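Figure 6 in text form: structure in, sequence out.
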């Protein structure tokens, strides 16, 4: 399994692709494929047929996965996209931190 610099629930900014500059929250993280699904980003239209009675058919908007390398975590303190580092404490615990301002994230 691959390690990713972001995880579900992180606020991220897209740094490459058609949605560059947009921000959103990670809904799903797929470490095995190195992809993430961000709410409101990489929207695609899907033509859906009603499978059971009562289900609606039509064109629905769906969020598609994007590569994790195309997103960057937004620091809650400084509000800017920044690289994420990992600090190891004396008791053996680890925490992620912002490499711009040094603020530790409360995960």
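Output sequence:
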């Amino acid at each position: 399994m691959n390690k990713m610099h972001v995880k579900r629930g992180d606020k991220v900014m897209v740094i490459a692709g058609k949605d560059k500059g947009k921000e959103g929250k990670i809904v799903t993280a797929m470490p095995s494929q190195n992809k993430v699904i961000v709410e409101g980003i990489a929207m695609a239209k899907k033509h859906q047929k009603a499978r059971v009675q009562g289900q609606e058919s039509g064109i629905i908007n769906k969020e598609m996965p994007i590569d994790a390398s195309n997103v960057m975590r937004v620091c809650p303190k400084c509000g800017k996209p920044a690289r994420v580092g990992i600090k190891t404490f004396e008791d053996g615990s680890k925490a992620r931190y912002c490499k711009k301002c040094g603020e530790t994230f409360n995960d």
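Caption detail: The radius of gyration is 17 Å.
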